Amino acid sequence: MANTAASAADAPLAGIRVTDFTWIGAGSYTTKLLADAGADVVKIESTGRIDSLRLAAPYKDGVKGVNRSGYFADRNSGKRSLTLNMKHPRALELVSRLIAQSDVIANNFTPGVMDRFGLGYEAVRRIRPDIIYLAMSMQGATGPEKGYLGYGSTMAAVTGIQHLTGLPGREPAGTGTNYPDHLPNPCHAAFAVLSALRHRRRTGQGQYIDMAQTEPTVALLGPAVMEYTVNGHDPQPAGNASRDEAAPYGAYPCQGQDRWIAIGIHDDAQWAALVRALDAPAWMNDPALGEAAGRRARRACIDERLAAETRRFEAPALAAALQAAGIPAMPVSTAADVIADPQLAHRGHWLTLDHPEMGPSLYNAQPFRMRHAPPGVRRPAPLLGQHTREVCRELLGLADDEIAALEADGALS
Questions:
Q1: Spatial separation of the C-alpha atoms in residues 413 and 410, rounded to whole Å
Q2: Whose CA, among 82, 127, 174, 334, lies 20 to 30 Å from 241?
Q3: Is 181 annotated as catalytic?
């Protein structure tokens, strides 16, 4: 468990500052991971071009507003927000002062956008020679498709994830969310930044990180790539069915409205335990089903009959009984179930932080605990421009009258 006596100064990235030009999903989540680890992340925003995640549902109390998006809040906790009009003549000078005091600058724009701001890698390196420069566009900075626009759903499509997710014979279904934005891309980008910081600590050299977001997503598809390159077979959607020898393997209905349990049988001993846990229905005692080959050959029939058996039970009770018997099984949870999950409660996963506009709001804690470091998320997501004056005074060295003049002139907007 985390050491609750540890201070913010004990955080792994305490003392690291990030100038954050990222927006929407993967980029914002990358810099959130850095903020959770103790970095001072200053998010560069603009009232003229608002991060579209601020305009994404769900909204607190169903009321729309740039400071009321739960999606934005989840991806931007722990950061400070500085509004800056990058088209203003003073903008480059102001952000250059911030970069000079930063260790990392991050963006997830299409290649060329940062250059038009006057903030390409070479220009930034002249400001801070040992800067870690993270650029995480869809297809990377080079190649015939470098200028293509992309979001999580298009990345899932072009990398093959959507081809593999769904039911056999049906249209590609995808994962129901922009999966590349939530796991492969931010995690790989944060890892690259940490590696670059370690390299700089050893050598004194900065780093330019050119990350194509499609490539970490492709890395998820190792089995499918192997199946094609080794066996010449193009894998097709399999629904809930296992692509290996596991059978039965899927989601089965339980008592109640739209309640389900996921069960995976990986060997003969687990099958025998399942038969006992379900009171040994006659059909399950067929000797042919006692071996994996027999179960694989009868997958469809087993799924149909097993569904009739699981309907007799409530999902949590059945899952507990199967787990006790050594069978991988868990209820298919709704969002409400996850929030009320006793295991997550025990580990302190859910945090309530007092947002300036939304009030007490639920946030995810870091999905790990460090014994000698404080819990990661220390403050809620910022209001649009909430820290503009603070950053201008603290880091840019501006007096209050200078800040007021820049606000009046439209530079800090």
A1: 6
A2: 334
A3: yes
